[in-house]
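Reminder to self: tokens first, then the designed residues, so the page reads top to bottom the way the pipeline ran.
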């Protein structure tokens, strides 16, 4: 099986997968320029998250909860237009602008009066806008530092191989592919389903980066070994042989992870489903990019194929 032969087809598939995400990023940015390309949760923008459970299984409608928030909103604590999500059959989750503990008490009292049953606070988190902005900057810095650290590590680990910097660069490009896929999926789900990027989303992105680079290093390490064994064989053939040697291991390892994540999507709670779905998409993308993007990039670079991308073929010669 010659995977390297069809490298431009795999690049095209990656391009086609990434484009819809970029489109939805643009859609969200045009609608909410202050947030950027993703709908951000209170971890990054500031606000309050209140999750409550009702004793007798009563669950008020989202419009009723929104009305309570709107009625209790005032100039000192603006909490109007909340985002209400039903959890199961006896609980709700409400996101709003940051509220004080006193205002939370008023909300609980109003819900108790409206439903006529005991209301238990499952979770209450409040983040100021300043802290949210600081977290957003730290998140961007964490991704950037991870990319730099990976580049330096791979360059050092493969220093015995000719053009070691290429391996680090190819790994970073594959990693960026996975980040774009994950962020693109998040943008699509944000626009269509109202999902918001929070701290768990950032955790999923950093985990995906780790999986992606791990798979890529496995392939690259086999390339390094085979270059020392097959010194007179074309670089392209060595790379393809190395991919085939690691293909079963890469796929089997990732399938075990993906089966577990898929089970968590089906049977896990609502609170982690968003995180698990993003992680599932990222693990699949990381497996694909390690096999079909990272190693083929080395071949393109070795052959300097960009010199022929825009060159016209001689008359009578098939392009």
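Designed residues (319 positions):
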């Amino acid at each position: 099986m010659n995977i390297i032969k069809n490298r431009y087809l795999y690049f095209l598939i990656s391009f086609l997968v990434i484009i819809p995400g970029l489109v939805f990023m643009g859609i969200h940015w045009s609608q909410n320029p202050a947030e950027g390309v993703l709908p951000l949760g209170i971890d990054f923008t500031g606000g309050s998250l209140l999750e409550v459970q009702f004793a007798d299984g009563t669950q008020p409608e989202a419009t009723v909860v929104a009305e309570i928030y709107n009625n209790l909103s005032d100039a000192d604590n603006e909490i109007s237009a909340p985002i209400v999500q039903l959890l199961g059959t006896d609980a709700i989750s409400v996101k709003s602008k940051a509220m004080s503990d006193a205002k939370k008490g008023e909300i609980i009292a109003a819900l108790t009066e409206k439903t006529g049953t005991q209301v238990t606070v499952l979770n209450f988190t409040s983040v100021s806008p300043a802290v949210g902005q600081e977290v957003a900057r730290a998140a961007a810095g964490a991704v950037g530092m991870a990319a730099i650290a990976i580049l330096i590590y791979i360059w050092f680990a493969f220093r015995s191989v000719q053009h070691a910097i290429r391996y680090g660069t190819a790994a970073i490009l594959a990693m960026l592919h996975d980040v774009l896929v994950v962020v693109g999926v998040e943008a699509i789900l944000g626009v269509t389903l109202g999902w918001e990027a929070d701290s768990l989303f950032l955790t999923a992105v950093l985990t995906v980066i780790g999986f992606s680079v791990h798979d890529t290093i496995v392939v690259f390490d086999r390339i390094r070994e085979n270059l020392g064994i097959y010194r007179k064989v074309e670089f392209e053939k060595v790379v393809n042989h190395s991919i085939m040697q690691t293909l079963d291991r890469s796929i089997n390892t990732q399938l075990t992870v993906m089966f577990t994540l898929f089970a968590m999507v089906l049977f896990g709670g609502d609170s982690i489903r968003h995180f698990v779905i993003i992680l599932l998409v990222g693990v699949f993308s990381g497996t694909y990019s390690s096999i079909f993007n990272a190693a083929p990039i080395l071949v393109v670079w070795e052959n300097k194929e960009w010199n022929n991308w825009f060159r016209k073929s001689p008359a009578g010669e098939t392009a």
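The chain has a mean pLDDT of 86.
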